[in-house]
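Hi,

I'm pasting everything inline rather than attaching a file, because the server keeps stripping attachments. The sequence lines come first, and each chain or strand is labelled.
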Amino acid sequence: MAATGATPDLQVRSLSKRFATHLAVDALSFSVARGSFFSILGPSGCGKTTLLRMIAGFIQPDGGDIAIGGRDLAQVAPNRRPVNMVFQHLALFPMMSVAQNVAFGLARRGVGRAERLRRAEAMLERVGLAGAGGKRTDELSGGQRQRVAIARSLVLEPTLLLLDEPLGALDLKLREHMKVELKQLQSAFGTTFVYITHDQSEALVLSDHVGVMNHGRFEQLGTPQELYYSPATSFVADFVGANNRLAGKALSVAGSLVELDTSGGWVVRARGHGAIAAGAAVEAFIRPEAAMLGRTPAELPAGQTVHSGEVISVLFDGANSVVLLRESRSRLQLRIALPQTGAYSDLQVGAPICFSFDPERAICFPARAAHA
Amino acid sequence: MISSSARCALMVFLALGLLAGTPARADAAKVLRIITWADYVPAEVVAQFRKETGIQVEVTLSNNEEMISKLRATGGAGFDLAQPSQDRILGAQQEFGIYKPLDTSKVRLDEFVPELLATVRTNATLGGRLYGLPYVWGTEGLVYNSKRTRISDYQDLCKPELRGRTAVRLKRPTLMAFALASGTNPFALYGDTKAYTALMQQVGKTLAACKANFRFFYDNKDQLLNGMRAGEIYAAMMWDSGGWALNRENPDIKFINPRSGAIAWMDTFALPARGRNDAGAYAWINFVMRPEIAAKVARSIGNFTAARGADQLMDPRIRAQFAATFPDGLKNIKWYPAIPSGLEEIEGGVLDRVKAAD
Amino acid sequence: MPETAVTALWYRRLVLALLLAPALLWLFALIILPHLDLALLSFRERVAPRQYVVSLAQYRTFFGEPLYWHVFVRTALLSALATALTLLVAFPIAWIIAKLARGRMSALLFVVCLIPFWVSETVRTLGWMILLRESGVLPALLVHLGITRQPVELLYHDATILVGLVYTSLLFMVVPLVGSLESLDNALIEAAYDLGGKGWSILREIVIPHAAPGITAGCIVVFMLTLGNYLTPTLLGGKNSQWFTEQIYTQFITRFNWEQGAAFGFLLLALSTAMVWLGLKISGQRFSDVMRRA
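And the predicted assembly:
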């Protein structure tokens, strides 16, 4: 896992929390290495907020323990933990100036007035807000406000900074910008960040390691690349990155490759993951960029099975452009990346088209039991 | 200069006022609005009056000061008949002109006890015209619980053992009573402002020194009656009717004529200056002064009325209580003379100081 | 063309004037006119029956007579104290309603604060008297519990007046407080706690500054209600109540001294205006912000 030789900054062991009948966090264990950016990614209701709030100390766990910097925190109140949090809506204090916001925690620690104002000013300078100390918080832009929220926490030099979807409320353009800024801040300060989000793109861009969370457990914990290219479960394959999902029945298993029949007799091959027997229900995933397009079978790489379909629509989005097509036999809808050469810019709706993919780059899991 | 829109608004306002006022005006002769004291207008008598005359009586309960204040505020409108005490008519009339003179030809004067009528004539005549007729009279003396204490004069309320156990009203009768108890007749000094002021200041000091003995200053009869019944109050200044009522409930409670003399009051009929139903008011006066009606009123109040012959129809128990309280008849009773205007301001200052004393 | 525009504007103004007319007429006829009349009255002095001259005598009497001064200052101080006590009592209630209680519980607490207003002030105050008088329920209970040997008179003390005033004013403090506390984002409290704040420092640094308009609004309303209250201090305070409104009543009704009463009334108006101004200055609030909360 992520831990290297040094003591991890955060160690969580069999942490559990139950609300009435709902198990929010289910015997969760993981650790976060010092100085790394760790994300917890999951859909809403997966338990990630509960987990974060237990680390911050706002919720008492039912079982398990949390250690920060090697120190167990079971009985430590949130206002004494070496952990600070950046709230979803930032929770800047509107009744205070920017500098007072940043100096708030220092004042609580008994730092003298002159000293804390000096430190607050220095911290504002480090986050690029030099001279903004006297402003009111509502005079700042969204990005500046986020930097104040981070500065307010980092001025206390916490071991761990928790971030509760701070980009969630921002508009798209600003969100893209803030992603970059967050990453830069984290590497500049070297503080360990634990970041929760439901946005897989944020998690992939920002993190050193990501825990994909579902129903109170981690489905997979790994680097963004591992999650993307080698999802451990069909949930991860589905949730992380765009994917084409094909449900069907395994016809045969040959070595690592599974041959499956999707509805309507369309047969494809994919790399099997986990125990799959012939006849079992399975799910296969093909990344949009894993498949190749061709107007004729001849244009496709030799040795790959050729599939055919018809264009439903072309979704032009520069480097992210895709074509939506309907596979001929199964009538299933697939999403395949358009090459950036512009070779398919004249593609017409309804035009016949061929595609193929390397079975090693498609992945097949036993079908998930339907969750309640 | 009034702008046209303002004039318009004024017209609308006036029109609304007229609309609201009109129906009442039409019925004025059918309604008699009396401002009076509690128990003075029994429901039974009201019903009988309506049956005989068709006039509906509307009663507003009040006391001397409020009666004057309300009539002053409206310049004597709003009521057709008022019942102030005889000594409070003249000053108020001089100052505020809130009453109109009575037409004695419309009243059967032979129904009134002549001595009482004479008293009112003395105290309520201004510029040769009469402003009041007697209705009910009574006295204010002392009431005490004989199980707890025994008192005989007003200043006994200040005995050390009665700390927190007595009550008086913070009004002029209390000042008069304590002045009498100090051996000076305040009524004799009505004409001598300087001497009167000195007397009142001295009385004020006495009351202020006695303040720890007063549990409260009562505003209405029921407050005191409840205090006496609950045993919180041992002795107090009280009207005879209330004292006798307590005595009938509990023989341990006695109403006495203080050594310095009980103070006698008399409430009257007076016509507000802008009353709308004088005919109804005269009809009512003649009606309630009939001996058999007056006796009903007397039973309701527990006091004697000024109707000739009504005392013979009075509850024999009250007659017996009267005889026990006043064995010498009305000899040691002080009647209030009319208060010259200006005196109440002197008394007010003194009462304020008593209230503020520690 | 311009003519129709002018007509339309004129028409809009007319509609606005008509809509406001009832309120303005009401304000003018029932508030401003009587006050003008009272102002004139207060600068008058009676020299003989039905003869008056313009004079400052009424105000001179007030300033020259320590008695009235004493009652005036006492009323102001006790009202301020009652306001402070009401704030102390109301704040936790408002906090529970706004932050802790949910749904039905919160509604129930509001109703508890509202119950006193289902009966008239007179009945309520008389109820207190029955409860607190020497032969009343509470002294009997104290004897029964062995706390006092004999029934004690709980009426007619300053403390009784204060208790009565706080009880009467509670709702008027709770409502603006709940309003201002509800708008306080819980995340702010958590953030302050997360940054090392403790209960008291969070209250001082975050909650109170946020709720300041509500607190000021509640205090102004309660102070004015208390200052102008007549029944509660008079009935519960008994012989020692010495409330300034009682002085005004006495001057008007039992002394027939309208001139003095009017002067007293204006002095009370001046006092409450001054206190409101002072309260706004101290809390650094703007009148319009505060009144929106009230």
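Chain A has eight helices and 20 strands.

If the labels don't parse on your end, tell me and I'll reformat.
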